[in-house]
């Protein structure tokens, strides 16, 4: 077994997700990047399972859809992508057998500076990246009423 989950066969099969049990930091970063890339496909598959799967699959798909489509999930996914992107070079350097101490210390310094800058100035960018445009969603609800329940529209309009 290669440690990767097969995502399917045929056209448009660009990537697969790694198993979560692979504990190397870099592999987690790669998994996050892959999830961002195939997020729409994951949602599509879960929606199919929710509608057409076995009873147990339907419940699991419903729960996963609720989690994956939440603001909290989107925020944490993009936050972790940002943090792991900043620290990835340091992580890779620390995992090498032939570590260059001066290089590692330089990477620690750069990582600290970038994390501090993100802490001080990066929140607006991150919130913009994961926030929903309420006005555009209300317009979509007007144009595609079958896709939005009355409760959804009421929640948007508050």
From TrEMBL:
Task: Give the top-rank taxon of the lineage listed in the UniProt record for this protein.
Answer: Eukaryota
Task: List, alphabetically, the PANTHER family matched.
Answer: GENERAL TRANSCRIPTION FACTOR 2-RELATED ZINC FINGER PROTEIN, ZINC FINGER, MYM DOMAIN CONTAINING 1
This protein is called: Zinc finger MYM-type protein 1-like
Natural source organism: Coffea arabica
What is the gene called? Answer: LOC113696873
């Amino acid at each position: 077994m290669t440690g990767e989950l097969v995502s399917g066969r045929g056209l448009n099969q660009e990537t697969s997700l790694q198993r979560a049990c692979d504990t190397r930091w870099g592999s987690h970063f790669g998994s996050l990047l892959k999830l961002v890339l195939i997020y729409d496909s994951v949602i599509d598959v879960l929606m199919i399972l929710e509608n057409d799967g076995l009873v147990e699959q339907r419940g699991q798909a419903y729960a996963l859809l609720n989690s994956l489509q939440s603001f909290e999930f989107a925020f944490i996914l993009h936050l972790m992508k940002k943090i792991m992107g900043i620290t990835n070079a340091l992580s890779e350097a620390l995992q090498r057998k032939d570590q260059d101490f001066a290089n590692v210390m330089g990477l620690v310094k750069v990582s600290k500076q970038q994390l501090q800058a993100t802490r001080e100035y990066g929140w607006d960018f991150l919130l913009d990246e994961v926030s929903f445009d309420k006005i555009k969603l209300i317009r979509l609800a007007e144009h595609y009423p079958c896709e939005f329940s009355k409760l959804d529209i009421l929640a948007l309009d508050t």
